[in-house]
Design a protein that fits this description.
Helix content is about 40%, strand content about 20%. By secondary structure, the protein is of the alpha/beta class.
Length: about 325
């Protein structure tokens, strides 16, 4: 009898050891009883703003204690790559798609039109309504919602800044006309410029290799560059910075991460913050069972004036004392 009890004890211990060594159950749940999720994450291109949004998204899920496997894929600046990426996520039956940028969101929405059980959360989208991602900010689609990256006042405040400190300037705009995110912003810039002393000169590009040529072609015609949050142009911003520095042309940008590349000023947002808020929405869906259609699309919480003093000096800008008290300062990143 004593030998039998010892044998039972040994067998029980072995069973417990095997159970403890199992990281994931056959039903997809983790060893602590929590569910393991697979998230497909896509973005049009890799640049600091989009990358920060993705980091913020992951941080929210980590803080919530979710066990997540990520399948991250970049379209490398080519929108044609997004369809196979999104279709692949659907074929893999991921638990959620994180679409980081307007093209990525549109692609994910199209891919899930017959798979609406896969929720899509987006960020780094300028105008989710105008681009056709959602019907309205308070009426997201059946399986999609998220956080836009343009504060309602950002472009207006930026244009006002240019008009105040560079009156009668001709402002050079470079953007990808094939990206609805950018077209929406350029239209907003034109509208904000009505009634000011500013005029605008535009160049469009079809790929990042054309950005430097576009900037160079504007040199003799403009007093200021203004680069909105166009993914293609921002991915090649260094070429615009080089022209701006060489020709002493102030470079106004659309977000703080472009200041670290050598831009002069922006009224911007923190992309990590909007990514994290999008991640919090993902937690509400994956952990708490909410539906995307019950979560309104949100704006960034606030904007702030950011200035790169070093870039101002490089671009021959006369310093204004008002900026010392109004701005948060950013330095150019060193490689």
């Amino acid at each position: 009898m004593k030998k039998l009890l010892i044998l039972v004890s040994i067998l029980t211990s072995l069973v417990l050891l095997v159970a403890c060594g199992t990281s994931e159950k056959e039903d997809g749940s983790s060893s602590d009883g929590g569910e393991k999720f697979k998230i497909g994450a896509s973005q049009i291109v890799e640049h600091p703003s989009l990358d920060k949004a993705y980091e913020g998204f992951k941080a929210a899920l980590e803080e919530a204690g979710l066990d997540v496997e990520y399948d991250f894929q970049s379209a490398q600046g080519d929108q044609n790559n997004l369809k196979p990426i999104s279709d692949g996520f659907v074929a893999d039956n991921v638990d959620l798609i994180f679409a980081n940028s307007t093209p990525a969101a549109l692609s994910a929405l199209e891919a899930t039109k017959d798979a609406t059980d896969i929720p899509v959360l987006f960020t780094s989208v300028t105008d989710a309504v105008e681009s056709g991602i959602v019907e309205a900010m308070d009426k997201p689609g059946e399986n999609i919602t998220g956080v836009v990256d343009l504060h309602p006042d950002a472009i207006q405040e930026t244009v006002k800044f240019i008009d105040q400190y560079f009156p009668d300037a001709t402002v050079g705009l470079i953007y990808n006309a094939g990206e609805s995110n950018s077209v929406t912003q350029i239209e907003a810039v034109r509208e904000a410029g009505e009634g000011t002393s500013l005029t605008f000169e535009e160049r469009t590009v079809a790929n990042s290799s054309e950005v430097q040529q576009a900037a160079t072609s504007l040199v003799s015609d403009v007093d200021v560059f203004y680069i909105v949050t166009d993914n293609m142009v921002v991915s090649a911003l260094e070429s615009v910075v080089a022209v701006a520095n060489e020709q002493d042309i102030p470079l106004v940008v659309g977000e703080p991460d472009s200041l670290a590349k050598g831009g002069f000023v922006t009224f911007g947002i923190d992309y990590f913050t909007i990514g994290k808020r999008t991640g919090e929405m993902a937690v509400e869906i994956l952990k708490n069972g909410k539906s995307p259609q019950d979560i309104n699309v949100e704006y960034p919480p606030e904007i702030q004036l950011f200035i790169n003093k070093g870039a101002a000096e490089e671009q021959g800008i006369e310093w204004n004392a008002d900026w010392d008290k109004d701005a948060q300062f950013v330095e150019t990143a060193t490689n």
